[in-house]
Amino acid sequence: MAGEDQSELIERLNAWGASFEAKQPQDVVEAAIERYRGEIVLACSFGAEDVVLVDMVHRIDPSMPLFYLDTEFLFPETYATRDRVIERYSLKPAQVIQVKSMLTAQQQAEEHGDALWSREPDRCCQLRKVEPLTRVLRGYEAWITGIRRDQAPSRANAGIVEWDQKFELVKINPLARWSWNDVWAYVKVYEVP
Question: Helix crossing, 48-60 with 76-88: angle to 10°?
Answer without folding.
Answer: 20
